[in-house]
Inverse folding.
Protein backbone atom coordinates (compact mmCIF):
# COMPACT_ATOMS: atom_id res chain seq x y z
CA UNK A 1 0.00 0.00 0.00
CA UNK A 2 1.51 3.31 -1.02
CA UNK A 3 1.82 5.83 1.75
CA UNK A 4 -0.61 8.36 0.34
CA UNK A 5 -3.24 5.74 -0.46
CA UNK A 6 -4.07 4.99 3.16
CA UNK A 7 -7.76 4.30 3.48
CA UNK A 8 -8.28 4.86 7.18
CA UNK A 9 -11.78 3.36 7.62
CA UNK A 10 -10.74 0.15 5.82
CA UNK A 11 -7.53 -0.06 7.82
CA UNK A 12 -9.32 0.47 11.15
CA UNK A 13 -11.96 -2.10 10.23
CA UNK A 14 -9.25 -4.63 9.35
CA UNK A 15 -7.40 -3.92 12.61
CA UNK A 16 -10.59 -4.41 14.61
CA UNK A 17 -11.11 -7.66 12.75
CA UNK A 18 -7.75 -8.84 14.05
CA UNK A 19 -5.48 -8.28 11.06
CA UNK A 20 -1.90 -8.08 12.38
CA UNK A 21 -0.84 -6.28 9.20
CA UNK A 22 -3.45 -3.59 9.67
CA UNK A 23 -2.42 -3.14 13.31
CA UNK A 24 1.24 -2.90 12.32
CA UNK A 25 0.41 -0.39 9.61
CA UNK A 26 -1.58 1.79 12.00
CA UNK A 27 1.21 1.77 14.58
CA UNK A 28 3.68 2.77 11.85
CA UNK A 29 1.45 5.64 10.78
CA UNK A 30 1.27 6.78 14.41
CA UNK A 31 5.03 6.49 14.80
CA UNK A 32 5.69 8.41 11.61
CA UNK A 33 3.25 11.14 12.67
CA UNK A 34 1.37 10.58 9.43
CA UNK A 35 -0.86 13.37 8.10
CA UNK A 36 -3.61 10.77 8.54
CA UNK A 37 -3.04 10.72 12.30
CA UNK A 38 -6.09 12.83 13.11
CA UNK A 39 -8.36 10.76 10.95
CA UNK A 40 -6.96 7.59 12.52
CA UNK A 41 -7.52 8.88 16.06
CA UNK A 42 -11.09 9.94 15.23
CA UNK A 43 -11.79 6.49 13.78
CA UNK A 44 -10.24 4.64 16.74
CA UNK A 45 -11.83 6.67 19.52
CA UNK A 46 -15.17 4.83 19.73
CA UNK A 47 -13.40 1.47 19.93
CA UNK A 48 -10.75 2.23 22.53
CA UNK A 49 -10.92 2.25 26.32
CA UNK A 50 -11.33 -1.45 27.05
CA UNK A 51 -7.77 -2.67 27.41
CA UNK A 52 -5.92 -2.95 30.67
CA UNK A 53 -2.57 -1.20 30.22
CA UNK A 54 0.26 -2.80 32.14
CA UNK A 55 3.60 -1.01 32.48
CA UNK A 56 6.74 -3.02 33.14
CA UNK A 57 9.84 -1.14 34.12
CA UNK A 58 13.20 -1.93 35.69
CA UNK A 59 16.94 -1.65 35.19
CA UNK A 60 18.58 -2.98 32.03
CA UNK A 61 18.82 -6.77 32.03
CA UNK A 62 16.60 -7.32 35.06
CA UNK A 63 14.36 -9.60 33.01
CA UNK A 64 11.61 -7.35 31.64
CA UNK A 65 11.36 -9.03 28.25
CA UNK A 66 11.53 -12.50 29.77
CA UNK A 67 8.82 -11.55 32.27
CA UNK A 68 6.72 -9.97 29.54
CA UNK A 69 7.03 -13.17 27.55
CA UNK A 70 5.92 -15.21 30.56
CA UNK A 71 3.02 -12.85 31.28
CA UNK A 72 1.89 -13.03 27.67
CA UNK A 73 1.78 -16.82 28.02
CA UNK A 74 -0.30 -16.52 31.19
CA UNK A 75 -2.77 -14.10 29.60
CA UNK A 76 -3.02 -16.25 26.47
CA UNK A 77 -3.87 -19.21 28.70
CA UNK A 78 -6.84 -17.12 29.88
CA UNK A 79 -7.84 -16.62 26.26
CA UNK A 80 -6.99 -12.94 26.24
CA UNK A 81 -5.78 -11.00 23.23
CA UNK A 82 -2.47 -9.35 24.11
CA UNK A 83 -0.49 -6.40 22.82
CA UNK A 84 3.14 -5.72 23.66
CA UNK A 85 4.95 -2.43 23.16
CA UNK A 86 8.66 -2.51 23.88
CA UNK A 87 9.76 1.09 24.12
CA UNK A 88 13.47 1.54 23.65
CA UNK A 89 14.59 4.94 24.83
CA UNK A 90 18.09 4.45 23.46
CA UNK A 91 17.15 3.56 19.92
CA UNK A 92 17.12 6.31 17.33
CA UNK A 93 15.27 3.99 14.95
CA UNK A 94 11.64 3.19 14.76
CA UNK A 95 11.28 -0.46 15.63
CA UNK A 96 9.10 -2.00 13.02
CA UNK A 97 7.69 -5.33 14.04
CA UNK A 98 10.90 -7.28 13.66
CA UNK A 99 14.27 -8.04 15.22
CA UNK A 100 15.26 -7.60 18.88
CA UNK A 101 12.16 -8.09 20.91
CA UNK A 102 10.56 -10.30 18.31
CA UNK A 103 13.43 -12.67 18.86
CA UNK A 104 13.25 -12.50 22.64
CA UNK A 105 9.51 -13.05 22.54
CA UNK A 106 9.68 -15.69 19.87
CA UNK A 107 7.32 -17.97 21.75
CA UNK A 108 4.45 -15.77 20.59
CA UNK A 109 5.73 -14.72 17.18
CA UNK A 110 3.24 -16.91 15.35
CA UNK A 111 0.27 -16.34 17.63
CA UNK A 112 -2.30 -14.18 15.77
CA UNK A 113 -3.79 -13.07 19.10
CA UNK A 114 -0.52 -11.44 20.17
CA UNK A 115 0.77 -8.17 18.71
CA UNK A 116 4.37 -7.35 19.52
CA UNK A 117 5.92 -4.09 18.58
CA UNK A 118 9.15 -2.26 19.34
CA UNK A 119 9.12 1.49 19.36
CA UNK A 120 11.85 4.05 19.55
CA UNK A 121 11.24 7.07 21.69
CA UNK A 122 12.92 9.62 19.51
CA UNK A 123 12.22 13.27 20.00
CA UNK A 124 11.62 12.78 23.67
CA UNK A 125 14.96 12.71 25.41
CA UNK A 126 15.36 9.63 27.57
CA UNK A 127 11.66 9.24 28.05
CA UNK A 128 8.76 7.51 26.47
CA UNK A 129 7.76 8.43 23.00
CA UNK A 130 4.86 10.82 22.64
CA UNK A 131 3.47 8.30 20.22
CA UNK A 132 3.29 5.52 22.82
CA UNK A 133 -0.19 6.48 24.10
CA UNK A 134 -1.43 6.60 20.53
CA UNK A 135 0.07 3.19 19.76
CA UNK A 136 -1.67 1.93 22.90
CA UNK A 137 -4.93 3.25 21.47
CA UNK A 138 -4.35 1.32 18.24
CA UNK A 139 -3.82 -1.96 20.13
CA UNK A 140 -6.77 -1.17 22.38
CA UNK A 141 -9.11 -0.59 19.44
CA UNK A 142 -7.77 -3.76 17.82
CA UNK A 143 -9.35 -5.67 20.68
CA UNK A 144 -6.39 -6.31 22.95
CA UNK A 145 -7.58 -7.16 26.44
CA UNK A 146 -4.18 -6.49 27.93
CA UNK A 147 -1.40 -4.24 26.64
CA UNK A 148 2.05 -4.64 28.16
CA UNK A 149 4.40 -1.70 27.81
CA UNK A 150 8.02 -2.56 28.54
CA UNK A 151 10.42 0.28 29.16
CA UNK A 152 13.96 0.36 30.48
CA UNK A 153 14.14 2.27 33.70
CA UNK A 154 16.37 5.18 32.90
CA UNK A 155 15.76 8.62 34.25
CA UNK A 156 12.32 9.88 33.41
CA UNK A 157 10.90 6.81 31.76
CA UNK A 158 9.96 5.01 34.98
CA UNK A 159 8.01 7.99 36.05
CA UNK A 160 6.44 8.46 32.65
CA UNK A 161 5.21 4.91 32.53
CA UNK A 162 3.06 5.70 35.53
CA UNK A 163 1.19 8.17 33.38
CA UNK A 164 0.70 5.56 30.67
CA UNK A 165 -0.24 2.47 32.60
CA UNK A 166 -3.23 1.42 34.67
CA UNK A 167 -0.93 -0.84 36.65
CA UNK A 168 2.84 -0.41 36.94
CA UNK A 169 5.05 -3.40 37.65
CA UNK A 170 8.53 -2.61 38.94
CA UNK A 171 11.04 -5.37 38.35
CA UNK A 172 14.08 -5.78 40.57
CA UNK A 173 16.72 -8.46 40.93
CA UNK A 174 18.74 -9.60 43.93
CA UNK A 175 21.70 -7.38 44.51
CA UNK A 176 20.53 -4.87 41.92
CA UNK A 177 17.93 -3.02 43.85
CA UNK A 178 18.00 -3.17 47.58
CA UNK A 179 15.42 -1.10 49.37
CA UNK A 180 17.46 2.00 49.96
CA UNK A 181 18.62 2.11 46.36
CA UNK A 182 15.04 1.67 45.23
CA UNK A 183 13.91 4.47 47.53
CA UNK A 184 16.64 6.73 46.20
CA UNK A 185 15.66 6.00 42.64
CA UNK A 186 12.10 6.97 43.50
CA UNK A 187 10.69 3.67 42.31
CA UNK A 188 8.99 2.77 45.58
CA UNK A 189 6.29 5.32 44.83
CA UNK A 190 5.63 4.21 41.28
CA UNK A 191 5.19 0.45 41.68
CA UNK A 192 1.74 -1.06 42.05
CA UNK A 193 3.26 -4.53 42.01
CA UNK A 194 6.90 -5.24 42.85
CA UNK A 195 8.61 -8.28 41.40
CA UNK A 196 11.96 -9.59 42.55
CA UNK A 197 13.02 -11.58 39.50
CA UNK A 198 16.00 -13.94 39.21
CA UNK A 199 14.94 -15.45 42.52
CA UNK A 200 17.11 -18.42 41.61
CA UNK A 201 20.01 -16.23 42.63
CA UNK A 202 21.32 -15.57 46.12
CA UNK A 203 19.80 -12.76 48.10
CA UNK A 204 16.27 -12.79 46.67
CA UNK A 205 14.60 -13.19 50.05
CA UNK A 206 16.69 -10.39 51.51
CA UNK A 207 15.70 -8.12 48.63
CA UNK A 208 12.01 -8.99 49.12
CA UNK A 209 12.26 -8.23 52.85
CA UNK A 210 14.09 -5.02 52.13
CA UNK A 211 11.52 -3.74 49.65
CA UNK A 212 8.64 -4.73 51.96
CA UNK A 213 10.33 -2.89 54.78
CA UNK A 214 10.89 0.24 52.70
CA UNK A 215 7.26 0.18 51.55
CA UNK A 216 6.12 -0.11 55.16
CA UNK A 217 8.09 3.04 55.98
CA UNK A 218 6.33 4.98 53.26
CA UNK A 219 2.91 6.58 53.30
CA UNK A 220 1.11 3.67 51.72
CA UNK A 221 0.20 1.88 54.91
CA UNK A 222 -2.89 3.91 55.76
CA UNK A 223 -6.13 1.95 55.66
CA UNK A 224 -7.82 2.03 52.26
CA UNK A 225 -4.60 2.62 50.36
CA UNK A 226 -3.22 0.02 47.98
CA UNK A 227 -0.47 -2.08 49.52
CA UNK A 228 1.80 -3.17 46.68
CA UNK A 229 2.66 -6.86 46.87
CA UNK A 230 6.29 -7.95 46.54
CA UNK A 231 6.52 -11.18 44.55
CA UNK A 232 9.46 -13.46 43.77
CA UNK A 233 9.82 -14.86 40.26
CA UNK A 234 12.15 -16.83 38.07
CA UNK A 235 10.79 -15.52 34.80
CA UNK A 236 13.07 -17.68 32.71
CA UNK A 237 11.51 -20.78 34.34
CA UNK A 238 7.94 -19.39 34.49
CA UNK A 239 8.03 -19.55 38.29
CA UNK A 240 5.90 -17.11 40.25
CA UNK A 241 4.20 -15.70 37.17
CA UNK A 242 0.73 -16.80 38.30
CA UNK A 243 1.27 -14.89 41.55
CA UNK A 244 2.15 -11.80 39.53
CA UNK A 245 -1.05 -12.16 37.50
CA UNK A 246 -2.95 -12.54 40.77
CA UNK A 247 -1.31 -9.38 42.12
CA UNK A 248 -2.25 -7.51 38.95
CA UNK A 249 -5.87 -8.73 39.16
CA UNK A 250 -6.11 -7.61 42.78
CA UNK A 251 -4.75 -4.21 41.87
CA UNK A 252 -7.33 -3.82 39.11
CA UNK A 253 -10.11 -4.85 41.50
CA UNK A 254 -8.86 -2.37 44.08
CA UNK A 255 -8.67 0.44 41.52
CA UNK A 256 -12.18 -0.27 40.30
CA UNK A 257 -13.51 -0.28 43.85
CA UNK A 258 -11.85 3.05 44.61
CA UNK A 259 -12.44 4.98 41.37
CA UNK A 260 -8.70 4.94 40.78
CA UNK A 261 -8.85 3.37 37.33
CA UNK A 262 -11.01 6.22 36.06
CA UNK A 263 -8.80 8.77 37.76
CA UNK A 264 -5.65 7.37 36.15
CA UNK A 265 -7.25 7.19 32.72
CA UNK A 266 -8.55 10.73 32.96
CA UNK A 267 -5.10 11.91 33.91
CA UNK A 268 -3.59 9.99 31.01
CA UNK A 269 -6.00 11.63 28.57
CA UNK A 270 -5.32 15.06 30.05
CA UNK A 271 -1.57 14.49 29.64
CA UNK A 272 -2.12 13.54 26.03
CA UNK A 273 -4.23 16.60 25.31
CA UNK A 274 -1.61 18.79 26.96
CA UNK A 275 1.17 17.24 24.89
CA UNK A 276 -0.75 17.88 21.68
CA UNK A 277 -1.62 21.44 22.65
CA UNK A 278 2.01 22.20 23.48
CA UNK A 279 3.23 20.60 20.25
CA UNK A 280 0.79 22.68 18.23
CA UNK A 281 1.67 25.86 20.05
CA UNK A 282 5.29 25.15 19.32
CA UNK A 283 4.51 24.56 15.65
CA UNK A 284 2.61 27.85 15.43
CA UNK A 285 5.43 29.61 17.24
CA UNK A 286 7.71 28.44 14.47
CA UNK A 287 5.49 30.00 11.83
CA UNK A 288 5.11 33.16 13.81
CA UNK A 289 8.81 33.58 14.20
CA UNK A 290 9.49 33.67 10.50
CA UNK A 291 6.71 36.02 9.48
CA UNK A 292 5.58 38.43 12.14
CA UNK A 293 6.05 39.72 15.58
CA UNK A 294 8.97 38.26 17.40
CA UNK A 295 11.94 39.86 15.62
CA UNK A 296 10.49 43.30 16.09
CA UNK A 297 9.56 42.58 19.70
CA UNK A 298 13.05 41.25 20.33
CA UNK A 299 14.58 44.46 19.01
CA UNK A 300 12.32 46.46 21.33
CA UNK A 301 13.35 44.33 24.31
CA UNK A 302 17.01 44.83 23.45
CA UNK A 303 16.45 48.55 23.12
CA UNK A 304 14.76 48.66 26.52
CA UNK A 305 11.44 49.78 25.03
CA UNK A 306 9.72 46.63 26.18
CA UNK A 307 10.35 43.67 28.49
CA UNK A 308 10.30 39.96 27.67
CA UNK A 309 7.07 39.28 29.61
CA UNK A 310 5.11 42.01 27.85
CA UNK A 311 6.52 40.79 24.55
CA UNK A 312 5.58 37.19 25.38
CA UNK A 313 2.02 38.30 26.23
CA UNK A 314 1.77 39.91 22.80
CA UNK A 315 2.96 36.75 21.09
CA UNK A 316 0.57 34.56 23.10
CA UNK A 317 -2.29 36.90 22.24
CA UNK A 318 -1.35 36.57 18.59
CA UNK A 319 -1.21 32.77 18.68
CA UNK A 320 -4.56 32.48 20.43
N1 LIG B 1 18.93 -16.61 36.28
C1 LIG B 1 17.91 -15.99 35.74
N2 LIG B 1 18.08 -15.33 34.57
C2 LIG B 1 17.03 -14.66 34.04
C3 LIG B 1 15.76 -14.64 34.68
N3 LIG B 1 14.94 -13.89 33.93
C4 LIG B 1 15.65 -13.45 32.87
N4 LIG B 1 16.92 -13.92 32.94
C5 LIG B 1 18.01 -13.67 31.97
O1 LIG B 1 18.45 -12.34 32.11
C6 LIG B 1 18.87 -11.82 30.84
C7 LIG B 1 18.16 -10.50 30.54
O2 LIG B 1 16.78 -10.76 30.38
P1 LIG B 1 15.80 -9.80 29.56
O3 LIG B 1 14.44 -10.36 29.73
O4 LIG B 1 16.29 -9.58 28.19
O5 LIG B 1 15.96 -8.48 30.42
P2 LIG B 1 15.40 -7.01 30.07
O6 LIG B 1 15.13 -6.37 31.38
O7 LIG B 1 14.28 -7.10 29.11
O8 LIG B 1 16.67 -6.36 29.37
P3 LIG B 1 16.73 -4.98 28.54
O9 LIG B 1 15.47 -4.89 27.71
O10 LIG B 1 17.96 -5.09 27.74
O11 LIG B 1 16.81 -3.89 29.57
C8 LIG B 1 18.58 -12.90 29.84
O12 LIG B 1 19.77 -13.61 29.60
C9 LIG B 1 17.57 -13.77 30.53
O13 LIG B 1 17.58 -15.10 30.09
C10 LIG B 1 15.61 -15.36 35.91
O14 LIG B 1 14.55 -15.37 36.55
N5 LIG B 1 16.72 -16.00 36.38
MG1 LIG C 1 13.98 -6.10 27.23
Amino acid sequence: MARRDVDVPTLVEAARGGSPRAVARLVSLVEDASPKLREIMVALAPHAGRAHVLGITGSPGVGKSTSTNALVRAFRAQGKRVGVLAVDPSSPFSGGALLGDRVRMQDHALDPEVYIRSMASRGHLGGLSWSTPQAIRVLDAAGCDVILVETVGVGQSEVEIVGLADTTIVLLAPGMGDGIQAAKAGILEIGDVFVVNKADRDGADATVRDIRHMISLGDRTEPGLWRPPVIKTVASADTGVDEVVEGIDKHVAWMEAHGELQRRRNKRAADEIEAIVLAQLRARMGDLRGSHGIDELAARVVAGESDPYTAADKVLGDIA
